Amino acid sequence: MNRARADVAERFRWQARWCEKLGSPLYRDLLHHAADDIEHGGPAWDVLADDTSERDGVLPGGQALRLMGAVHRLVLEGRAPELAGFYPSAGGAVAAGVRESFANLLERQRDDVTELIGHPVQTNEPGRSAALMGGFLEVARQTGLPLRLLEVGASAGLNLRWDRYFYTARGGAWGDPDSPARFDPAFVEGAPPLHVRPQVAERRGCDTAPLDAADRGDRLTLLSYVWPDQEQRIAQLRAALDVAADVPVAIDRASAIEWLEEVLGERRNGVTTIVFHSLVLPYLGQQGIADLKRTIEEAGARAARDAPFAWISMEAGEEQADVRLTTWPGGESRVLARATFHGPPVRWMAG
What pLDDT does residue 132 have? Predict the structure, then answer.
């Protein structure tokens, strides 16, 4: 068998296994079908043969997610009516025949798909706010200062609006009870300090290809990367995009290190500066990860009692995402919570 096709097929099967674990039987089946098709040099291989996975960093399933996002976008734009009948995100229902319809689209609309898979994966999962918010509350509890939020890989900045959503836990709740973006339950075990009500003094982010939550095309981009049979995630994304319309956030077009060196260059007294990110590291590559860690630790070394600094990361652990908090002065680090890669349910582990 052609080695290039075999390697791509294995990456598709890797992503299919994760889609099964994370609750998308539609993508599990379509990705296994695409892997078989790639091995046989069929329509799926035709649209991928000239593609490069270099843009995917160290993410094994990046190419698979770009293909699925390209097809989903055609469905959401009304350019794939046959396949739309099988996609719940477009009002359809998963049923026998979806594989054949998927293959037909790849063959008949090869040019459209080929153009779209050239775009990088762009996800902005607001559910991750349910995992991150505990870290923000814990930092606010420790420092008692307003929060300056700086997000790396912010996309459209939906997680920078975390305090405008509503979350529930056993015996408590936090946030805006009138918010359309709701995570119920957010916490299934333990809970962060829900009595804390921090002030957000600044929210700012960076991304190499930032999106505008108010732009129709950018909203479609974000929706296209949500798995179409996960209707709750789609509803939560739509709600978070609506919230974003009332909460302006600046997202700078910049690489992580370049941006951090600029925004962390001057110490800010009277606020707690928090750098955070969620499921970003796979896109940075090994050198990028090392540079990020170095830049953040150098900023931490400059922290002071009246200008504390914190780093909150939500990144892959063994089977779930670990939410880790590191604070300066001192550099103490601990895992606060574990969650799915999309957010809830969250298991709070700290205190």
Answer: 98
List % helix, strand, coil for the chain (3-state, nearest 5): 45, 20, 35
pLDDT average, residue stretch 242-267: 94
DSSP 222-266: HHHTS-TT-HHHHHHHHHHHHHHTTS--EEEE--HHHHHHHHTSS
β-bridge pairing 200-207 and 272-278: unpaired
Report the pLDDT value the prediction gives residue 283, as an integer from 0 to 100: 85
Burial track 123-153 (b if 16+ CB lie within 10 A, e otherwise): bbbbbbbbbbbbbbbbbbebbebebbbbbbb
**pLDDT of 53 higher than 80:** no
Average pLDDT rounded to a whole number, residues 71-91: 97
Catalogue the long-range contacts made by 290-298 (C-beta closer than 8 Å, 24 or more residues apart): 291/256, 291/257, 292/152, 292/256, 292/257, 292/260, 295/257, 295/260, 295/261, 295/264, 296/260, 297/331
How far is residue 186's CA from residue 198's CA, in Å, rounded to a whole number?
19
Q: Name, in order, each residue with C-beta under 8 angstroms of 137's C-beta and a sequence gap of 6 or more.
A: 174, 192, 193, 194, 196, 198
Phi, psi values for residue 207, rounded to 5°: -160, 145
- According to DSSP H, which parts of the chain are helical? 3-21, 25-39, 43-48, 62-76, 81-84, 98-108, 110-116, 129-143, 216-224, 231-244, 256-263, 281-301
Q: Which pLDDT belongs to residue 58?
A: 63
Residue 55 pLDDT: 63
